[in-house]
Specification:
Strand content: 15-25%
CATH class of the largest domain: Alpha Beta
Helix content: 25-40%
Structural class: alpha/beta
Number of domains: 2
Number of strands: 18
Largest sheet: 7 strands, mixed
Amino acid sequence: MKISYQKDIPVMGSFDVMVCGGGFAGVAAAVAAARKGANVMFIEHYGFLGGMATAAGIGEFWASPIGENSIFEEIRERLGKLYGITANKHSYDGEKVKFVLQEMIAENSNIKLRLHTRAIDVIRNNNLVKAIIIHGKSGIEAVEAKIIVDTTGDGDVAFLAGASFQKGRPTDQVQLAMGYIFTMWDTHEKVKPVLPEGCKKYKDDEPLPFGKWHKSKGGRVYCHMGKIIHHDSTDSDSLTEAEILARRQMMSLVYYVQTHGGSTYTLATSPVQVGVREGRRIVGEYILTEKDITTGRKFEDAVAVGTSNIDFHDPDIIGGRGEGRIESVPPYHIPYRCLLVKDLDNMLTAGKCISGDQVAQSSYRMIPTCAAMGQAAGTAAALCVKQNISLREIDTTFLRTTLEKDGIELDLNKILPWHYTAGGKWWIESRA
């Protein structure tokens, strides 16, 4: 059954660049475009910025944070000045990141930020997206933009525009496992463990869904322990079920911690949403491959560098830590062609939804790399508007030169790889 209706939608504004999605890729894209003189519309469906870094409570900058891109380094520097985060420290407090990111956007007068707002449709004319239909507390509105940058993580806007995409592994489209990160507090007094009805009781010899926790000074316990498999982040019913299962899993794990060495710990916070590692991968002019990243491939149109190890969380295994594939790779280029959207002339992607295969995505989806791609996309969009050319007409040599002048390091010989070696399946680490 279908329902058809017609409604006049007010146009709230016309912009040079519209960035959809307020994660690190989106923030970097908006800032980069604005600093190049573009008039930018920037939307985010939560009431804060940061994407998975803040909404999912990740707490770690995975991938090499040094020398990779100027905007990401600037964010780290701002966190350092305010909160004493050192240059080589990869952990962070998401609540502080929210503030730093919003202030970074607020100081750019040519960025129009709308929180609590999401794209719900597009108006497309042949290969051009003429307007984005948005919905927020003001109702349904339209935004006209010359160039759109999709930094939604799941490629939602490109999907609405009819772009081709890949999802999950080639055989059955099963996505990488989702994660769930929550925090506990050390009350310094024994608490009564409670296992709610319907929640699983883990046995002593049973592998936990993930099993990593860090105790910080002050009594905060960072629990990266949840794992949800065989769910689809781009399907409304499946994602809803994933959230429900994740919270039940969290309660089971809280009980386990309280009865296995954490008798004074109590649940403090749960994330705004389940941690999504993989959604849609929008097909571009080139699909970055596993072979590309494992061989450290160079591209003439490179606009960003990937450094993280392959972090492939097995889509079929729920128990144990270190499952799946963890493999170091040399630094590799991410070409501009992966940011272009096939069959759409005025849209770029940036972040984990760019064009790549599932294994490659398990490396380039990390926060610093997403920020680098965002900076590249925002810069390219602004340059194209300024020169009145299409995204495919841009001189990629000039784009590279511009990015390098702005602090993006594209020389693979100058960037250190970032790798992680799995330890035990369960441990406590003291962290200053």
